[in-house]
Design goal:
The chain has about 525 residues and is an alpha+beta fold. The protein is built from 18 helices and ten strands. The protein starts with 10 loop residues before the first strand and ends with a helix. The relative contact order is 0.08.
Length: about 525
């Protein structure tokens, strides 16, 4: 059947084929010029069976999904015409990063692959192309009609120059941003009942403007057409499959109860796509697939791959220290073997990414690091953690130590309000005592790691009961509502003073020489 595919340099269904962008199991993708429309550049996917994919794609209109323009036939071959956004996939990015021997510090490492691929594609256009070089300069996303993308979020949408946006991000931030964009496209598809089922780096286009886009819905499933699970074929790419997807691939029972569908058979759904997205992002952040690639037949290796996913999630930060505990927690939530413990939707994943980028506590994944939560709190309240606030707080603390406390009068209109106010006062007294204790450890500027570590632990423990680290409106809690303004001022001062000391201690620890 391969000999029946058209050749570069020929005309096919009204398009002049000027280059080949890629080929896979189901067909080939060409770079073509559409003669009827000013010779614009398009991507033409040619296969013997492509109607089902086009029907699914026709339902999707989103900024981060490559759409279709039209469907064409020529004998046994079918062709889908799509706008040409570029020729770089995340597989190309990973290949280039592997040749560098390490991960870059910023998004520039990703941009370099896009620019190199863009230059190479333009340079290798068919020399016999009669349209000349004037059209070549127009290659890229600017040729395509803008997409509506009804779920586009400004919080992670690129600026007008998407490549510049990527360049300004750290590498970890760039990967997280791309993940949120792709999850937004997935959520759009999932809401319309379409599951991708073959997410992998080669199926993610990184457009010439830096925009990540979902490709290749050939194996996608429309849940509106879902019939008997036992009769439904399941495809995909083994290294990026979830445990339930792997089990369905060779007809094994559901590996965990949370992945069981009718009659106990594994169900591949939106959460399976979230898992595959987590594998892709983890691979980008550690430079290799998080689970072992095993040689052999599917029947032999799939049970081993399922067992690996059930027992071993790689320590991401051990491979890449630039990954923060919160980012690792988000990825581990994607890679939960039990779908019931995974992100229940792509939108939930997006919410945690957005909260992390806004220095807010995660909502769906656990906040595993008190130190990172403290840093986020400091960034949300820079004035409270400033040296000026620390000096004012120290003055307040000195007055407290001297016994110059003002006892407030509490309204007793309601017994519950009075009880909560007493709790708030007790928390204030505890904080004052804990601050004095933590200060002995944190006020020193000596690079004494054990002492600083004890001080950080005591400082964080002092702030935990107040809800400071996880609640942006902690001072509005019921137990603090009845405190006098002077008491609220002391509470804020001590919190700010501790935040300042903790921040300074962290800087001191970072500057200490490594053994």
């Amino acid at each position: 059947a391969a000999t029946a595919f058209p050749k570069v340099g020929t005309e096919f269904v009204g398009f002049r084929l000027v280059g080949e962008l890629g080929r896979g199991t189901f067909g080939r993708v060409y770079l073509g010029r559409q003669g009827e429309l000013a010779g614009r550049l398009v991507a033409l996917k040619v296969s013997t069976e492509i109607v089902a994919e086009s029907q699914k794609l026709a339902q999707l209109q989103h900024t981060h999904i490559v759409p279709i323009h039209s469907l064409h036939r020529d004998g046994p071959l079918q062709a889908v015409c799509m706008p040409y956004f570029g020729s770089t996939t995340l597989a190309d990015v990973l290949r280039d990063l592997g040749q560098l021997g390490g991960l870059p510090a910023s998004g520039k490492g990703i941009i370099s692959t896009v620019e190199m691929r863009r230059s190479r594609t333009r340079a290798t256009l068919d020399p016999s192309d009669s349209s000349g070089g004037s059209h070549r300069a127009a290659a890229g996303p600017a040729d395509a009609t803008p997409l509506p993308g009804d779920l586009r979020r400004e919080s992670f949408a690129p600026e007008q120059n998407g490549l510049r946006h990527l360049e300004e991000l750290s590498y970890v931030e760039a990967v997280l941003w791309m993940g949120a964009c792709l999850a937004d496209g997935l959520h759009h598809a999932h809401e319309r009942g379409i599951i991708h089922r073959d997410l992998k780096p080669a199926n993610v286009l990184l457009a010439d403007d830096g925009r990540p886009m979902l490709l290749d819905f050939n194996l996608a499933e429309d849940l509106h057409d879902r019939g008997d699970d036992a009769e439904r074929p399941v495809g995909g790419t083994l290294p990026y499959m979830s445990p339930e997807h792997l089990a369905a691939f060779i007809g094994l029972p559901a590996p965990v109860p949370g992945s069981a569908g009718p009659r106990g058979k594994p169900r591949v759904d939106a959460r399976s796509d979230v898992y595959s997205l987590g594998v892709i992002l983890t691979e980008l952040l550690i430079g290799k697939t998080p689970f072992a690639r095993l040689p052999g037949s599917a029947e032999a290796v799939v049970p081993l791959m399922i067992a690996d996913r059930l027992e071993n999630v790689p320590p991401i930060r051990a491979y890449n220290p630039r990954v923060t505990p919160a980012v690792e927690s988000i990825l581990r939530k994607c890679l939960e073997a039990d779908p019931a413990r995974r992100y229940q939707s792509a939108e939930a994943f997006i919410e945690d990414v957005e909260r992390h980028r806004a220095d807010l506590p995660l909502r769906h994944a656990p906040n595993t690091s008190p130190a990172e939560r403290m840093r986020k709190w400091v960034r949300r309240h820079p004035r409270l953690a400033s040296p000026q606030t620390a000096l004012a707080a120290a003055a307040v603390a000195a007055l407290v130590v001297a016994g110059l406390c003002v006892q407030g009068v509490v309204s007793a209109r309601h017994q519950e309000a009075q009880r909560l106010t007493l709790i708030g006062k007790q928390k204030l007294r505890d904080l004052e005592e804990d601050t004095t204790l933590a200060e002995h450890f944190l006020a020193s500027t000596a690079e004494d790691s054990p002492r600083l570590a004890d001080g950080v632990a005591k400082g964080v423990a002092a702030l935990e009961p107040l809800g400071v680290l996880d609640d942006a409106d902690w001072l509005d809690r019921p137990e603090f509502a009845g405190l006098l303004p002077e008491e609220k001022g002391r509470l804020k001062s001590h919190v700010g003073y501790l935040a300042y000391l903790l921040t300074r201690a962290e800087r001191t620890a970072k500057s200490a020489p490594r053994p």
